[in-house]
Every structure is written in structure tokens, then in C-alpha cells.
């Protein structure tokens, strides 16, 4: 029973292309996130949604557009891909917005390689 | 803004021995949560242990325990009886309990090797 699933697992594409990563959670959580892990393994939040509403939008190029059709799904669309976008992108969810000690539950990540 | 620091980029431990990974954080808040996550080569992020700042008792989970020093803003992870499967990146993380819907902030990670 996969809790947080994201697809695809690997994504190789050329500069300038547009691509999407999908994420779904079956935990009944209210909040979902996108994190980016760079080549040095540093994890940085990109976006957070609570019940389909954008809560956190860090300093991310507007080529990145998250979309949450319902609270169980959070997709990430990237336009005009650049070499620097190469990274591992993690989707995560948590029970609520942080009032409890609910940890993040992560998907297995999508390794994006831009050539 | 809160920050999380892990001063040991790499550590190694002999199998069956004990190792301690360091983490310090900076915050002006008094109520928050702290976590340790493990990321093995499979790249899956796995929760190891969590600590509420209002609890004085240190959290333990089997072979994993923490030393939480609130005044010093320190949150170290001790792994006892190290096993080969403990080899991974370990991330310390902070989450506010005072701000709704706040993000989880991660440290830069410590790469742990286990020597057979």
C-alpha cells in the first residue's frame, strides 16, 4: 500500500521542454509539499498546499507551477526546462499544517535530468 | 528565520559500535518539533525519530535516541549497535509549532558509513 506515490521515478529531457511530475497520497492528509534536493543532497521546500490552497511559495522561478486538483493530489509542472533544474524532486504530505508533531511522509522522489 | 546546521558532513562507525550525529538549530520560538530523517541509497526519506520541544524527556526508538538540549539548541542523534543497514544520509529537521502550516526546514545532512 503506497502512501505517497509520485511518477515518474526518472525523467530525462532536453532543455526547453515542458514536463510534469504527479503526486498522490492515500493517507488522508490535508497538506502536501514539493521539495527539491540538489546535487549536494540539500533539501529545500518549493511549495505547500493545504486542502487545495497554496500556503507556501518559496522563491521559485515562475516556470514551476504546482496544481492541486484535490487534497490527495499535488502535481508539479515545469516549463522551459533548464540545466539547473536537474535534481531530485520529492513530494510529501503531512496530517495538518504543523500544529501537531505530524512528520512529513515522502514519496520516493523523481530524478529529473535536463540535457 | 530558522536554520538547521549539521557540522559533520561525513561520519563513519564500526559495525556494532555507537555513533552520535550532531545537529544545532537557531530559532526564536519556544514551541517546535525536531526530527531526524534517514535517506539510504534508495533515496527514500524515512522518519527515524521525533521530539517535541516542550518535552524534557529525550525520545528513543529502539537503537535510536536523541540528546535534546533546548537551551543549547542542540538535537543530536545516537545510534547504538550500528548495523550495515544504518549506512545513509541523515537529516535533522525543524518544524514550528507556533506558525500554522509552516514548512519543515532541513539541515545539510550527514553521510554515515558503517564499516563491517
Features:
heterodimer; A: mainly beta; seven-stranded mixed β-sheet; four-stranded antiparallel β-sheet; 55% strand; B: mainly beta; six-stranded mixed β-sheet
3D architecture notes:
The complex is a heterodimer of chains A (115) and B (116). In chain A, 0% of the residues lie in helices and 55% in strands. Chain A is an all-beta fold and 115 residues long. In chain A, the strands form two sheets. In chain A, strands 2, 4, 5, 6, 9, 10 and 11 form a seven-stranded mixed β-sheet that branches. In chain A, strands 1-3-8-7 form a four-stranded antiparallel β-sheet, with no helix packed on it. In chain A, strand 7 and strand 8 (73-78) form a beta hairpin. Chain A is globular. The mean pLDDT of chain A is 92. Chain B is an all-beta fold. Chain B has no helices and twelve strands. In chain B, strands 2, 5, 6, 10, 11 and 12 form a six-stranded mixed β-sheet that branches. In chain B, a hairpin with a 4-residue loop joins strand 8 (64-69) and strand 9 (74-79). Classes of the chains: A mainly beta (115), B mainly beta (116). Chain A binds chain B through residues 31, 33, 40-45, 48, 50, 55-56, 58, 88, 90, 92, 97-99, 101, 103-106, 108-109, 111, and chain B through 33, 35, 37, 39, 42-45, 47, 50, 52, 89, 91, 93, 95-97, 99-106, 108-109, 111.
Describe how the helices and strands are arranged.
The complex is a heterodimer of chains A (115) and B (116).
Chain A: E1 4-7, E2 10-13, E3 19-25, E4 31-37, E5 43-50, E6 53-57, E7 64-70, E8 73-78, E9 87-94, E10 105-106, E11 110-114
Parallel strand pairs in A: 2-11
Antiparallel strand pairs in A: 1-3, 3-8, 4-5, 4-9, 5-6, 7-8, 9-10, 9-11
Chain B: E1 3-5, E2 10-14, E3 19-21, E4 24-26, E5 32-39, E6 46-52, E7 60-61, E8 64-69, E9 74-79, E10 88-96, E11 104-106, E12 110-115
Parallel strand pairs in B: 2-12
Antiparallel strand pairs in B: 1-4, 3-9, 5-6, 5-10, 7-8, 8-9, 10-11, 10-12
